[in-house]
Amino acid sequence: MELGKARGTRLAPRTGGRVLADALVAQGIAHAFAVPGESYLDVLDGLYAVREKLHLTTCRFEAGAVHMAEACGKLTGRPAAAFVTRGPGACHAAIGVHVAFQDSTPLLLFVGQIPFAETDRESFQEVDYRRMFQPLAKWVTQIDDAARIPELVAHAVDVATTGRPGPVVIALSEDMQKHSVEVPDIGRAPVFRARPDDAALERLATLLARARKPLAILGGSCWSEQARADIRTFLTANDLPVTVSFRRQALYDGTLDSYVGDLGVGSDPALVARAREADLILAIGTRLGEAVTQGYTLFDPAGRTPIVHIHPDAAEIGRVFRPALGIVSELDLFAAAAAKLAPVTPAWGEWRHELRALRLAGRDVPDYEGPLNLGQVLRDLEGLLEDDAILTTDAGNFSAWPIRFMHFSDRQRFIGPANGSMGYAVPAAVGAKIAHPDRQVVAFVGDGGFLMTGQELATAFHHGVAPIVLVGNNQMYGTIRMYQERAYPGRVSGTALTNPDFAKFIEAFGGHGEVVAATADFSPAFRRAVESGKPAVIELRLNPEQITSRATIAQLRAGSAAKPAAKAPPKRAAAAAKRPAGGARAPAKKPPPKR
C-alpha cells in the first residue's frame, strides 16, 4: 500500500504478528522456514493469515531452518526468512547466520524475544541478540514497538540485499507481537545502484590490452541469469581464462574452453602455481579471501601483480591486496557494461590453452584402489544430472571431489558453505527443492555431516519434495583425520565414526534407500532413486584409505615421516623465541579452523 494513499484511508488495526507477516509480503519475501516457539506465537498466527502469499516450511532443527533459508537466498538472490525461538533456538540458528555472512547471502532471521518489561532480569531464555549476533550479521535490531515493524523490516531487506549481501537478525519482543496498531505497509523502493563509470571501464580495457597472462576470478553472490550471460560474453569475447572462487562453480559454465578450474580449498596445485605467474588479475565479485588466495599468499598485498577488483562493497576493495584499479559496482551492472566493451586483441591464446589443458588433465580419473572409485562415480553423476539440476555440498574432504572431477553447465547450480560448515548440504537441498520444486536437487554429504542435520529429510517428506542425498561413508571425520595424519601420523584420536545403515535410515521415513559399494552399481542406483519419486539416500561406501582425491593415508604418513624433526632451540634462546621484539608474548600460530 502506498503511503500517500494510506494516509487518506482509515487503516484497520492489526496485531504486531499480523503486521510482520504483511511486511514480509510487502517486501516480496516468498519463503519462511521455522521451528516454532512460544516466543512468537502471534507471528505464526500472522503467517497463517498470509499463507497463500508466503510459504511457511516447518523444520526439525533451527540450524536446518536457517540453512534452508540461506540456500534459497543463494539461488534466488532475494532473502528468505527464518524464524526461531529465543535462547536455545537462537543459539542453534547462529551457525546458519555465520554461513550467510561469510558466503555473502541475503537472509532474514527473526528471533522470538522475552517480553520487553522483563529485560535485564535474566528472564527465561533471555539473550541480548544485539551483542550475540553483532559479529555474525550485517545488522542486528530488536522491535519493541509494533508500529515500527514495516519500517524496520523494509530496512532489513535493504541492508541484506545491498552492497555486500548478508544476514540481518531481528529480535521480536513477545508482548509487542500482541499489540494492536494502525500502520501502513511499506513496499520495496526503486533504488539506482552503483555502476561502473566510463573512466573505470577505459582503464580496465587499457590494463587488459597490456597483459600477456591475465586470469579472471569470479566470485560473490546474487548473480542474476542476465548477469551470468553478460559476464560470459565479456570473458569469452576476450578469450580470458576463467577461474571461480571457493564453491562458486555455479557462476560459470565449466564446459567452456575458457574455464580453467577453481581457486579455493583443495585446488589443483598446478593451477595455483600458474596463477602465481599471472600478470593481471580480474577479481570480479570475489572478496579475495583466505581460501581464494591460498592463505593470503597468492598475491603480494602491495600490488606487485596488478589486480582489477570489482565488488559492490567499497570496503572490500583493497582490504588486503592493493588493486591497480578498484571498481565499486553491483555485479549485474558491471557485467552489462563489460559485455558492451570492444574486446581487446588477446595476446594470451597459448596461456589460456595451457590452463585449460591443466584443468582437463586434472579431472582425469586416477585408478584408485578399491571397488568404488569416487572420481568415476562423480563423472558418471555429471552425465546423469538434468540440465538445470542443483547440487548442494557439505563441508569435508569429500566435497573437493566434485569440484575436481565434475563440470557444471550453464543452467546447473552448485552451492555449498564457503565458511566450511558441516551439516549444510541436506537442509540446503530441502530448501532448494522447496524453492524450485520442478528442478532436480542432489545433496552430496559425508557421514559426519549427514548425522548432524539428516533429520531434515523429515521436512522434505512433510512438505512433499524429493531431493536425492549421496552420503559418502568412510567412517571418519575425514578433513580432521587428514590434518591429524600430517601432524601426528598414526595417532588416530577422536576422528573415527560408527555409522548406521544409511539406506535403512531413509527407508524408515518411507523413502528410497540404496547402498553402493562398487563403481558400476552407482548409475543404476541413481536412476532408481530418480524413478522412485521419493526422498532418497544413496550410501557410497568409500575406501577409508583414500582420504583425499590426491593422497592416501599411507602417503600422508610417509610425507610426515620424511620431514626432518625440528631441532629444539638452546635453552637460553627458547624463552626469547617465545616473545617477539618489545617483550610482548607471541601469539600461537594456528592453522585456520576447519571441520
Element layout with pairings:
Layout: H1 3-7, E1 14-15, H2 16-26, E2 31-34, H3 41-49, E3 55-58, H4 62-76, E4 80-84, H5 88-102, E5 107-113, H6 129-133, E6 139-143, H7 149-161, E7 167-173, E8 180-181, H8 198-210, E9 214-218, H9 225-237, E10 242-245, E11 259-263, H10 269-275, E12 280-284, E13 307-311, E14 325-328, H11 331-339, H12 349-362, H13 374-384, E15 390-393, H14 400-405, E16 413-415, H15 425-435, E17 441-446, H16 447-453, H17 457-463, E18 468-473, H18 478-487, H19 502-509, E19 512-516, H20 522-532, E20 536-541, H21 553-562, H22 571-577
Parallel strand pairs: 2-3, 2-4, 4-5, 5-7, 6-7, 9-10, 9-12, 10-11, 12-13, 13-14, 15-16, 15-17, 17-18, 18-20, 19-20
Antiparallel strand pairs: 1-8
Helix pairs in contact: 2-3, 2-7, 4-5, 4-15, 9-11, 13-20, 15-17, 18-21
* Average pLDDT level: 90
Q: How would the global form be characterised?
A: globular
Q: What class would the helix/strand composition place it in?
A: alpha/beta
CATH C-level of the largest domain: Alpha Beta
Write down the CATH topology of the largest domain. Rossmann fold
What's the gyration radius in Å?
25 Å
Distance, first to last CA: 47 Å
Task: Provide an overview of this structure.
The protein is α/β, with parallel strands linked by helices. The chain folds into three domains: 3-181, Rossmann fold (3-Layer(aba) Sandwich); 198-362, TPP-binding domain (Rossmann fold), CATH 3.40.50.1220; 374-553, Rossmann fold. The chain is 36% helix and 16% strand. It is globular and about 70 Å long. The two termini are 47 Å apart. The model is unreliable at 1-8 and 565-595 (pLDDT under 50).
